[in-house]
Amino acid sequence: MERNLTERPMLADIQQLKDRVAEKADLIHRLNGEMSKVIIGQEQMISRLLIGLLAGGHVLLEGVPGLAKTTAITSLARALSVRFQRIQFTPDLLPADLVGTMIYVPSTGSFTTRKGPIFANLVLADEINRAPSKVQSALLEAMQERQVTVGDETFPLEKPFLVLATQNPIEQEGTYPLPEAQVDRFMLKVKMTYPKPAEERKILDMALDGTTRPIQPVLTAEDIFAMQDVVRMIYIDEQVKDYIVSIIRATRDPRSFKLDGLAPLIEFGASPRATIFLGTGARALAFLQGRAYVTPQDVKDVAYDVLRHRVILTYEAEAEQKTSEDVIREILAAVPVP
User: Fold this and answer.
1) What b/e readout covers 98-133, taking b as 16+ CB neighbours within 10 angstroms?
2) What is the Cα–Cα distance from 128 to 122, expressed in whole angstroms?
């Protein structure tokens, strides 16, 4: 009898939260509706951009040219009533071109701060791997602490703040690999694929007919904050939390999960930041699917995007042509599901 009494409030709370999730579902539908005016297919990529928006995490899109990476991000920005800045990364870019610099004012004999394009709500770092590491490192403080230091002054960044970056994996000339510390700042690394034949036909028809409709802003910053508040309330059972921790532990100590074959392939496992992002990402995915609670499948679905850039492989893995996705697949298959 006591068990029933303790369960009833929990069920009532879940139902109330489910109602709140349903109330905010219209905001996501409106956002998807605007983006679908320009983007055909690519549901996986769009859902990951929305997960980043809802969880407040930065997103890195990787794919060959022509897959609408930049178009998708600019479409998302146009559908939001927030400040958007696009930064085209090039080899001659300087850190001051991102964060700003101190300008001397002769009339007053003092310095004033000229803020850079990083002072925005949504920042598109286009072809981020085309700039050297000194420029990429200029993003580190902004992405982690949500603040920027120029000279001896530190300025907080306005919320929401999101860095959405793109990179091309096939070009090597004039590119600079992202340092591990920079890559780890991204909540998700999304690998984009080619569209399906039916989707590509629609893309062709849209381009030939010129039927693209202009995107209208449908969500405000307050709408984003309201959805983020609901996402933070999504229920995660204790067993699901333990499942998340077990997945991360398996990337660091695969032998403890009877994955002896993976031990020589992993040089560094995922950081505690991955643990946090796996939980927040699963919450955001549950919200997008209209649920007030997280399932183990939600964790599995976001695991590849959270971990593929955090599981660092050895030279032996490269010699065996193993990828981080291969390692993650084996880990998810071995870790017991609650």
Assistant:
1) bbbeeeeeeeeeeeeeeebbbbbbbbbbbbbbbbbe
2) 15
Residue of 274, 287, 303 whose CA lies nearest to 186:
274
Instruction: Give the C-alpha separation, 239 to 176, whole Å.
Output: 41
- Structure tokens given for 131: 């700039």
CB-based contacts of 14: which residues, under 8 Å, 6+ apart?
Answer: 235, 292, 293
Residues 6+ away with beta carbon under 8 Å from 33: 218
261 bridge partner residues:
none
Residue whose C-alpha is closest to residue 31's, from 69, 66, 77: 77
In this structure, the number of other CB atoms found within 10 A of the CB of residue 65 comes to 11
| Residues 4, 149: Cα–Cα separation, whole Å | 54
Identify which of 337, 334, 338 has the alpha carbon closest to the alpha carbon of residue 257. Answer: 334
pTM: 0.89
Please say whether the beta carbons of 157 and 195 come within 8 A: no
pLDDT tens track for 88-146? 998 888 888 898 888 877 877 777 888 889 999 999 999 998 888 888 888 888 898 99
| Domains along the chain with CATH numbers | 40-215 (3.40.50.300), 234-334 (1.10.8.80)
Q: How many CB atoms lie within 10 A of CB 230?
A: 17
Report the relative pairing of strands 80-81 and 219-220 from DSSP bridges.
Answer: parallel
DSSP string, 59-72: EEEE--TTS-HHHH
Query: Which DSSP letter does residue 225 get?
Result: H
CA distance 178 to 60: 11
Count of C-beta atoms within a 10 Å radius of residue 302: 25
pLDDT digits (tens, 9 = 90+) for 309-318: 999 888 988 8
